[in-house]
């Protein structure tokens, strides 16, 4: 890191006992340092983007002669690796145009905030998003929100797949369609709409049904992530299981989301974690569980889609706190009921063991 | 002849001074607070 600077969203605060808080109040991001002697507070004050690490360590030692050179350098190194500091030196990023930088400036700010991995420059997550190739299978309640979010985020290559036409009853939740679109193919309308959202990315679409794992395998060939937003065929031998197997074979992660009334849940699976079938096998059977009921609002469908899109972006940027292999979600009738399920690989699983 | 340092030498070796960054997790009572300045 050339010119360390504390990230603005992580500005330090000091309490009466000398404890330094960085990153505000967001758990998973914020940190505390017991700093009765003031070493961290002083070093952080020197990290204003105007001096290199060696100079910061030298000034820290000048303030505290009790520290050796090695100790001062160690304190600086600890802070540089903490995730609270960025490089204020000019960011050479030829991979993005100036227009793209303006468009995605808020995304950059977001990842600067939540990404605790020290980077060469702050645009790295956006470059990864631009280089990503994602298939969105299904353009209904979940998939329409996924497709919009990924296009808006600047995913460089999107392929949209859905066999259906727009129906009036879709318009309570499917964000890409309007009344004049009723009767038109969703794939065609989605393509038109998303090209208006972001003309700088590559988007293709096809009105096709996926009728088996072979078709799905061909669909994901050459892509980095599958966003599975289709729910047919259902059941233990259905499309989720196809996705589990063909994505494992291709070595790519996949994300799937949906809603069971007020329960919105998303699964994130991929190399290095327990597969869908293993996690699913760990969930106790629940009589009456059925995802086939049609009740849904724009809010529940939107949550489903945006959680899927969030996880796709987490996978392509690498900014994620939990490795793949879990379900998570929201129970809208229970504000305290965030859903999370992760179970280990079964010893005899030929996919993930 | 033993290579073990004398007790006096062990006492003279001072621990290296430094800091520990402790990430807050959700178990802490002050680890989360709703913002009064949410953005829209």
What distinguishing features does this structure have?
heterodimer; A: 353 residues; alpha/beta; Outer Surface Protein A, domain 3; Rossmann fold; 2 domains; three-stranded antiparallel β-sheet; 12 helices; 16% strand; B: 40 residues; mainly alpha; 15% helix; 5% strand; rod-shaped
Describe the structure.
The complex is a heterodimer of chains A (353) and B (40). By secondary structure, chain A is of the alpha/beta class. Chain A folds into two domains: 4-87, Outer Surface Protein A, domain 3, CATH 3.90.930; 132-341, 3-Layer(aba) Sandwich (Rossmann fold), CATH 3.40.50.720. Chain A is 36% helix and 16% strand. Chain A has twelve helices and 13 strands. In chain A, the strands form three sheets. Chain A has an eight-stranded mixed beta sheet with strand order 8-7-6-9-10-11-12-13, with helices on both faces. Chain B is mainly alpha-helical. In chain B, 15% of the residues lie in helices and 5% in strands. Chain B is built from one helix and one strand; from the N terminus they run H-E. Chain B is rod-shaped, with a radius of gyration of 23 Å. The mean pLDDT of chain B is 67. At the A-B interface, strand 4 and helix 3 of A face strand 1 of B. Strand 4 (31-33) of chain A pairs antiparallel with strand 1 (22-23) of chain B, so a sheet runs across the interface.
Sheet/helix structural class of chain A: alpha/beta
Largest interface: A-B, 26 and 16 residues
Coarse structural class of chain B: mainly alpha
Order of helices and strands of chain B: HE
In short:
The complex is a heterodimer of chains A (353) and B (40). Chain A has 353 residues and is α/β, with parallel strands linked by helices.
